[in-house]
UniProtKB/TrEMBL annotation:
Coiled coil: none annotated. The gene is engB. This is Probable GTP-binding protein EngB. InterPro entries: G_ENGB_dom, GTP-bd, GTP-bd_ribosome_bio_YsxC, P-loop_NTPase. It comes from the Bacteria. Gene3D superfamilies: P-loop containing nucleotide triphosphate hydrolases. GO terms for molecular function: GTP binding; metal ion binding. CDD domains: YihA_EngB. Necessary for normal cell division and for the maintenance of normal septation. Keywords: Cell cycle, Cell division, GTP-binding, Magnesium, Metal-binding, Nucleotide-binding, Septation. PANTHER family: ENGB-TYPE G DOMAIN-CONTAINING PROTEIN (PTHR11649:SF13), MSS1/TRME-RELATED GTP-BINDING PROTEIN (PTHR11649).
Amino acid sequence: MGKIKSAEFVVSNSEVAKCPKNPIPEYAFIGRSNVGKSSLINMLTDRKSLAKTSGRPGKTQLINHFIINDSWYLVDLPGYGYARVSKTSKKKFQKFITNYFEQRQQLVSAFVLVDIRHKPQPIDLEFIQYLGESGIPFGIIFTKADKLKPKAIERYVEDYCQQLLKTWEELPPYFITSSSKKIGQEDVLNFIKATNEEIEQLRNQ
């Protein structure tokens, strides 16, 4: 398994140009506010408070870089669809999120977080569409799986996949997770580990 031995905060900023310069693989986590992103990051890294969890959704308002095992970056991005920030702020956030995705060459994959308890939301589907049209590789992470029974999870994921197949020829990789029950930790980390190994092989060819 792609076990995490070390995880350290590196830098927060709102400008892509100020992101770390070293050419190591980067994985960006993004989703609607209140989707459980900070809890997921803490669960993946086995750290209680690496990413700040908050009772108030929309607290992440910067691009946050964490170095993992000294070999790849985990990037915590602001949620889209804040309920409580002004339109001007929302525009500003959206701008640097799109700047990040369109300019960041180190980005290997985005992970779009989706709350497994809700039907496919237009805002998530639009964002997934945006990533596809921009040619940005991504996976989907379904969060809060502990809130549903296994049969309901199966049905939900099936519905979501059917919705995606209306506009996609093939499905992106997807992962079912629960931060409180540590479900999916191994699947996500193994995917990142395998991807990093592929990148390394290509570099050495």
